[in-house]
Protein backbone atom coordinates (compact mmCIF):
# COMPACT_ATOMS: atom_id res chain seq x y z
CA UNK A 1 0.00 0.00 0.00
CA UNK A 2 1.48 3.38 -1.00
CA UNK A 3 1.74 6.26 1.49
CA UNK A 4 -1.31 8.15 0.12
CA UNK A 5 -3.54 5.07 0.39
CA UNK A 6 -2.18 4.38 3.86
CA UNK A 7 -3.02 7.92 4.98
CA UNK A 8 -6.55 7.61 3.63
CA UNK A 9 -7.00 4.26 5.36
CA UNK A 10 -5.80 5.69 8.69
CA UNK A 11 -8.12 8.69 8.39
CA UNK A 12 -11.09 6.48 7.50
CA UNK A 13 -10.27 4.21 10.40
CA UNK A 14 -10.23 7.20 12.72
CA UNK A 15 -13.60 8.39 11.39
CA UNK A 16 -15.09 4.94 11.75
CA UNK A 17 -13.73 4.63 15.28
CA UNK A 18 -15.17 8.01 16.29
CA UNK A 19 -18.56 7.01 14.90
CA UNK A 20 -18.45 3.62 16.58
CA UNK A 21 -17.72 5.07 20.02
CA UNK A 22 -20.21 7.95 19.82
CA UNK A 23 -23.08 6.80 21.99
CA UNK A 24 -26.76 7.16 21.19
CA UNK A 25 -27.81 9.00 24.35
CA UNK A 26 -27.53 12.55 23.04
CA UNK A 27 -29.61 11.77 19.95
CA UNK A 28 -32.26 10.05 22.09
CA UNK A 29 -32.49 13.00 24.46
CA UNK A 30 -32.94 15.42 21.59
CA UNK A 31 -35.51 13.24 19.82
CA UNK A 32 -37.42 12.73 23.06
CA UNK A 33 -37.13 16.39 24.07
CA UNK A 34 -36.42 15.32 27.63
CA UNK A 35 -33.54 14.10 29.80
CA UNK A 36 -34.36 11.00 31.89
CA UNK A 37 -32.46 11.20 35.15
CA UNK A 38 -32.27 8.57 37.88
CA UNK A 39 -32.40 10.05 41.40
CA UNK A 40 -32.85 8.85 44.97
CA UNK A 41 -36.32 8.00 46.20
CA UNK A 42 -35.81 10.53 48.99
CA UNK A 43 -32.51 12.10 50.02
CA UNK A 44 -32.88 15.60 51.50
CA UNK A 45 -30.27 17.93 50.03
CA UNK A 46 -29.69 15.71 46.99
CA UNK A 47 -33.10 14.78 45.60
CA UNK A 48 -36.52 14.95 47.19
CA UNK A 49 -39.97 16.01 46.07
CA UNK A 50 -41.25 19.10 47.88
CA UNK A 51 -44.82 19.70 49.05
CA UNK A 52 -45.82 20.67 45.50
CA UNK A 53 -44.32 17.47 44.09
CA UNK A 54 -41.40 19.32 42.48
CA UNK A 55 -37.99 17.66 42.70
CA UNK A 56 -35.25 19.67 44.44
CA UNK A 57 -31.63 19.15 45.50
CA UNK A 58 -28.02 19.15 44.36
CA UNK A 59 -28.40 16.01 42.23
CA UNK A 60 -31.60 17.40 40.73
CA UNK A 61 -29.67 20.51 39.73
CA UNK A 62 -27.00 18.38 38.06
CA UNK A 63 -29.74 16.91 35.90
CA UNK A 64 -31.27 20.33 35.27
CA UNK A 65 -27.91 21.73 34.21
CA UNK A 66 -27.43 19.00 31.62
CA UNK A 67 -30.96 19.56 30.31
CA UNK A 68 -30.34 23.31 30.03
CA UNK A 69 -27.12 22.70 28.09
CA UNK A 70 -28.61 20.15 25.67
CA UNK A 71 -32.26 21.13 25.34
CA UNK A 72 -32.21 24.79 26.32
CA UNK A 73 -34.61 24.24 29.21
CA UNK A 74 -33.60 23.02 32.67
CA UNK A 75 -37.14 21.84 33.36
CA UNK A 76 -37.13 19.29 30.54
CA UNK A 77 -36.20 16.45 32.89
CA UNK A 78 -38.07 13.29 33.81
CA UNK A 79 -37.00 12.10 37.28
CA UNK A 80 -37.00 8.37 37.96
CA UNK A 81 -36.77 7.56 41.71
CA UNK A 82 -34.55 4.51 42.23
CA UNK A 83 -33.59 2.41 45.23
CA UNK A 84 -30.03 1.24 45.86
CA UNK A 85 -30.86 -2.17 44.36
CA UNK A 86 -32.24 -0.65 41.15
CA UNK A 87 -29.99 2.23 40.18
CA UNK A 88 -27.15 0.45 38.36
CA UNK A 89 -29.54 -1.87 36.49
CA UNK A 90 -31.65 1.10 35.38
CA UNK A 91 -28.57 2.86 34.04
CA UNK A 92 -27.17 -0.19 32.26
CA UNK A 93 -30.49 -1.12 30.67
CA UNK A 94 -31.07 2.35 29.23
CA UNK A 95 -34.10 3.08 31.41
CA UNK A 96 -32.38 6.32 32.39
CA UNK A 97 -29.92 8.57 30.53
CA UNK A 98 -27.83 9.44 33.57
CA UNK A 99 -27.71 8.56 37.24
CA UNK A 100 -27.51 11.37 39.81
CA UNK A 101 -28.37 9.56 43.03
CA UNK A 102 -25.75 10.49 45.67
CA UNK A 103 -23.98 7.28 44.65
CA UNK A 104 -20.47 6.37 45.86
CA UNK A 105 -17.83 6.00 43.14
CA UNK A 106 -16.19 2.65 43.87
CA UNK A 107 -14.01 0.34 41.81
CA UNK A 108 -16.71 -2.35 41.69
CA UNK A 109 -19.32 0.01 40.32
CA UNK A 110 -16.96 1.74 37.95
CA UNK A 111 -15.18 -1.33 36.58
CA UNK A 112 -17.75 -4.13 36.58
CA UNK A 113 -21.29 -2.75 36.45
CA UNK A 114 -21.30 -0.94 33.14
CA UNK A 115 -21.24 2.54 34.66
CA UNK A 116 -18.78 5.35 34.00
CA UNK A 117 -18.57 7.81 36.87
CA UNK A 118 -18.08 11.32 35.58
CA UNK A 119 -16.99 13.51 38.51
CA UNK A 120 -17.15 13.74 42.29
CA UNK A 121 -19.95 16.19 43.01
CA UNK A 122 -19.94 15.73 46.79
CA UNK A 123 -17.20 14.45 49.13
CA UNK A 124 -18.78 12.51 51.98
CA UNK A 125 -18.03 9.75 54.48
CA UNK A 126 -19.89 7.07 56.42
CA UNK A 127 -20.96 7.85 59.94
CA UNK A 128 -23.31 6.60 62.66
CA UNK A 129 -26.31 8.16 64.39
CA UNK A 130 -27.88 7.06 67.66
CA UNK A 131 -30.71 8.18 69.93
CA UNK A 132 -29.25 10.44 72.63
CA UNK A 133 -31.08 8.33 75.20
CA UNK A 134 -28.73 5.44 74.34
CA UNK A 135 -25.88 7.35 76.01
CA UNK A 136 -23.33 6.34 73.36
CA UNK A 137 -20.57 8.83 72.48
CA UNK A 138 -18.34 6.77 70.16
CA UNK A 139 -18.72 3.97 67.64
CA UNK A 140 -16.36 1.93 69.81
CA UNK A 141 -19.28 1.63 72.24
CA UNK A 142 -21.53 -0.08 69.67
CA UNK A 143 -20.55 -3.70 70.38
CA UNK A 144 -23.74 -5.78 70.25
CA UNK A 145 -25.83 -3.03 68.63
CA UNK A 146 -28.58 -3.53 66.07
CA UNK A 147 -27.86 -1.41 63.00
CA UNK A 148 -30.35 -0.09 60.43
CA UNK A 149 -28.82 -0.12 56.95
CA UNK A 150 -30.12 0.02 53.40
CA UNK A 151 -29.47 -3.09 51.34
CA UNK A 152 -27.51 -2.86 48.11
CA UNK A 153 -25.45 0.09 49.34
CA UNK A 154 -21.70 0.30 49.90
CA UNK A 155 -22.65 1.06 53.52
CA UNK A 156 -23.80 -2.53 54.04
CA UNK A 157 -20.35 -3.89 53.19
CA UNK A 158 -18.29 -1.22 54.94
CA UNK A 159 -20.31 -1.69 58.12
CA UNK A 160 -19.46 -5.40 58.09
CA UNK A 161 -15.81 -4.59 57.37
CA UNK A 162 -15.59 -2.17 60.29
CA UNK A 163 -17.32 -4.30 62.93
CA UNK A 164 -15.50 -7.49 61.91
CA UNK A 165 -12.07 -5.84 61.80
CA UNK A 166 -12.67 -4.36 65.26
CA UNK A 167 -13.96 -7.69 66.60
CA UNK A 168 -17.31 -6.17 67.55
CA UNK A 169 -20.63 -7.99 67.43
CA UNK A 170 -23.62 -6.42 65.67
CA UNK A 171 -26.87 -7.30 63.95
CA UNK A 172 -28.10 -5.55 60.82
CA UNK A 173 -31.73 -4.75 60.10
CA UNK A 174 -31.87 -4.17 56.33
CA UNK A 175 -34.41 -2.37 54.16
CA UNK A 176 -34.80 -1.80 50.42
CA UNK A 177 -35.42 1.95 50.44
CA UNK A 178 -34.09 5.05 52.14
CA UNK A 179 -37.53 5.90 53.52
CA UNK A 180 -38.03 2.46 55.09
CA UNK A 181 -34.58 2.51 56.69
CA UNK A 182 -35.10 5.99 58.11
CA UNK A 183 -38.57 5.18 59.41
CA UNK A 184 -37.34 2.02 61.13
CA UNK A 185 -34.58 3.86 62.95
CA UNK A 186 -36.76 6.78 64.02
CA UNK A 187 -39.40 4.36 65.35
CA UNK A 188 -36.78 2.54 67.45
CA UNK A 189 -36.42 -0.76 65.57
CA UNK A 190 -32.63 -0.52 65.83
CA UNK A 191 -30.02 1.18 68.00
CA UNK A 192 -28.00 2.75 65.21
CA UNK A 193 -28.49 4.23 61.76
CA UNK A 194 -25.45 4.19 59.51
CA UNK A 195 -25.08 5.93 56.17
CA UNK A 196 -23.25 8.87 54.61
CA UNK A 197 -23.03 11.84 56.96
CA UNK A 198 -25.19 13.91 54.61
CA UNK A 199 -27.88 11.23 54.74
CA UNK A 200 -27.75 11.12 58.54
CA UNK A 201 -28.33 14.87 58.62
CA UNK A 202 -31.27 14.32 56.28
CA UNK A 203 -32.75 11.66 58.55
CA UNK A 204 -32.83 14.11 61.45
CA UNK A 205 -34.85 16.59 59.39
CA UNK A 206 -37.68 14.08 59.00
CA UNK A 207 -37.71 12.97 62.65
CA UNK A 208 -40.58 14.33 64.80
CA UNK A 209 -37.96 15.62 67.27
CA UNK A 210 -34.49 15.96 65.68
CA UNK A 211 -32.94 16.92 69.03
CA UNK A 212 -33.36 13.34 70.25
CA UNK A 213 -30.69 12.03 67.85
CA UNK A 214 -26.94 12.48 67.76
CA UNK A 215 -24.39 11.85 64.99
CA UNK A 216 -21.27 10.26 66.46
CA UNK A 217 -17.93 12.01 65.77
CA UNK A 218 -16.15 9.29 63.81
CA UNK A 219 -16.18 8.82 60.03
CA UNK A 220 -15.08 5.36 58.86
CA UNK A 221 -14.94 5.65 55.05
CA UNK A 222 -14.46 7.95 52.10
CA UNK A 223 -17.63 8.30 50.04
CA UNK A 224 -17.02 10.24 46.80
CA UNK A 225 -20.52 10.80 45.42
CA UNK A 226 -21.21 11.70 41.83
CA UNK A 227 -23.19 11.21 38.63
CA UNK A 228 -22.65 8.29 36.27
CA UNK A 229 -23.49 7.46 32.66
CA UNK A 230 -23.35 4.25 30.65
CA UNK A 231 -19.88 3.09 29.76
CA UNK A 232 -19.00 3.49 26.08
CA UNK A 233 -21.15 6.56 25.48
CA UNK A 234 -18.20 8.91 25.33
CA UNK A 235 -20.08 11.82 23.73
CA UNK A 236 -22.61 12.03 26.53
CA UNK A 237 -19.95 11.38 29.18
CA UNK A 238 -18.10 14.50 27.99
CA UNK A 239 -21.26 16.62 28.08
CA UNK A 240 -22.07 15.66 31.68
CA UNK A 241 -18.45 16.14 32.76
CA UNK A 242 -18.13 19.61 31.26
CA UNK A 243 -21.52 20.71 32.51
CA UNK A 244 -20.22 20.04 36.01
CA UNK A 245 -17.00 21.94 35.28
CA UNK A 246 -19.09 24.94 34.21
CA UNK A 247 -21.19 24.54 37.37
CA UNK A 248 -18.10 24.76 39.60
CA UNK A 249 -16.20 27.17 37.35
CA UNK A 250 -19.01 29.69 37.58
CA UNK A 251 -18.58 29.77 41.35
CA UNK A 252 -14.80 30.15 41.01
CA UNK A 253 -15.25 33.22 38.79
CA UNK A 254 -18.12 34.67 40.82
CA UNK A 255 -20.71 34.17 38.09
CA UNK A 256 -24.16 33.60 39.56
CA UNK A 257 -27.68 33.07 38.33
CA UNK A 258 -28.44 36.68 39.25
CA UNK A 259 -25.43 38.38 37.62
CA UNK A 260 -24.71 36.19 34.59
CA UNK A 261 -26.45 38.54 32.15
CA UNK A 262 -24.45 41.53 33.40
CA UNK A 263 -21.22 39.50 33.28
CA UNK A 264 -22.10 38.48 29.74
CA UNK A 265 -22.18 42.17 28.77
CA UNK A 266 -19.07 43.34 30.62
CA UNK A 267 -16.64 40.41 30.95
CA UNK A 268 -13.10 40.92 29.61
CA UNK A 269 -11.44 37.82 31.12
CA UNK A 270 -11.23 35.22 28.29
CA UNK A 271 -11.99 32.43 30.78
CA UNK A 272 -15.20 34.11 31.88
CA UNK A 273 -16.19 35.02 28.33
CA UNK A 274 -15.95 31.38 27.27
CA UNK A 275 -18.06 30.42 30.29
CA UNK A 276 -20.87 32.89 29.50
CA UNK A 277 -20.86 32.33 25.74
CA UNK A 278 -19.23 35.54 24.48
CA UNK A 279 -15.76 34.13 23.87
CA UNK A 280 -14.59 31.15 21.85
CA UNK A 281 -17.23 28.61 20.90
CA UNK A 282 -16.54 25.74 23.30
CA UNK A 283 -19.88 24.01 22.74
CA UNK A 284 -18.99 22.73 19.28
CA UNK A 285 -16.57 20.23 20.81
CA UNK A 286 -19.47 18.73 22.76
CA UNK A 287 -21.99 18.77 19.95
CA UNK A 288 -23.72 21.72 21.63
CA UNK A 289 -24.14 25.38 20.77
CA UNK A 290 -22.11 28.31 22.05
CA UNK A 291 -24.53 29.22 24.85
CA UNK A 292 -24.63 25.81 26.54
CA UNK A 293 -22.84 26.93 29.73
CA UNK A 294 -24.55 30.33 29.82
CA UNK A 295 -27.94 28.59 29.90
CA UNK A 296 -26.78 26.26 32.66
CA UNK A 297 -25.75 29.20 34.89
CA UNK A 298 -28.77 31.33 33.98
CA UNK A 299 -31.30 28.60 34.69
CA UNK A 300 -29.62 26.63 37.50
CA UNK A 301 -26.92 28.84 39.03
CA UNK A 302 -23.46 27.75 40.18
CA UNK A 303 -22.29 24.98 42.50
CA UNK A 304 -22.01 27.23 45.55
CA UNK A 305 -25.56 28.49 45.11
CA UNK A 306 -26.89 24.93 45.13
CA UNK A 307 -24.74 24.05 48.13
CA UNK A 308 -25.97 27.01 50.17
CA UNK A 309 -29.60 26.34 49.31
CA UNK A 310 -29.66 22.64 50.09
CA UNK A 311 -26.86 22.07 52.65
CA UNK A 312 -25.83 25.48 54.00
CA UNK A 313 -26.49 27.21 57.34
CA UNK A 314 -29.95 28.40 56.31
CA UNK A 315 -31.03 24.96 55.07
CA UNK A 316 -32.71 22.21 57.06
CA UNK A 317 -29.52 20.11 56.95
CA UNK A 318 -27.16 22.90 58.12
CA UNK A 319 -23.94 21.07 57.22
CA UNK A 320 -20.39 22.44 57.15
CA UNK A 321 -19.13 22.63 53.57
CA UNK A 322 -15.81 21.02 54.49
CA UNK A 323 -14.08 19.22 51.62
CA UNK A 324 -16.75 20.52 49.26
CA UNK A 325 -15.38 24.05 49.49
CA UNK A 326 -13.57 25.45 46.46
CA UNK A 327 -9.86 24.59 46.37
CA UNK A 328 -8.93 28.24 47.06
CA UNK A 329 -10.94 28.05 50.29
CA UNK A 330 -9.24 24.84 51.45
CA UNK A 331 -11.60 22.33 49.85
CA UNK A 332 -11.34 19.85 46.98
CA UNK A 333 -13.73 21.43 44.45
CA UNK A 334 -11.65 22.45 41.46
CA UNK A 335 -13.03 23.19 37.99
CA UNK A 336 -11.10 21.93 34.98
CA UNK A 337 -10.25 24.81 32.62
CA UNK A 338 -12.77 25.49 29.86
CA UNK A 339 -10.36 26.56 27.14
From TrEMBL:
The keyword Signal applies. SMART domains: PBPb. Keywords: Signal, Transport. Residues 34-263 form the Solute-binding protein family 3/N-terminal domain. Gene3D superfamilies: Periplasmic binding protein-like II (3.40.190.10). The keyword Kinase does not apply. It comes from the Bacteria. Belongs to the bacterial solute-binding protein 3 family. This is Amino acid ABC transporter substrate-binding protein. The lineage of its organism: Bacteria, Pseudomonadati, Pseudomonadota, Betaproteobacteria, Burkholderiales.
Amino acid sequence: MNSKLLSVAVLCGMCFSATAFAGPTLDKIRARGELVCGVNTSAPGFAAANSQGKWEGLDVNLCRGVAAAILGDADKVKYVPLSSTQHMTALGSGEIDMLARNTSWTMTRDASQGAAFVVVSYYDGQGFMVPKALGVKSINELDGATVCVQTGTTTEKTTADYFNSHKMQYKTVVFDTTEATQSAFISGRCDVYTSDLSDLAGVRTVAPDPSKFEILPETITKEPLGPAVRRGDWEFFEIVRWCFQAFVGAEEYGVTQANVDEVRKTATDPNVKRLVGTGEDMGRMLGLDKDWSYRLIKQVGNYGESWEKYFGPNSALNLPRGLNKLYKDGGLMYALPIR
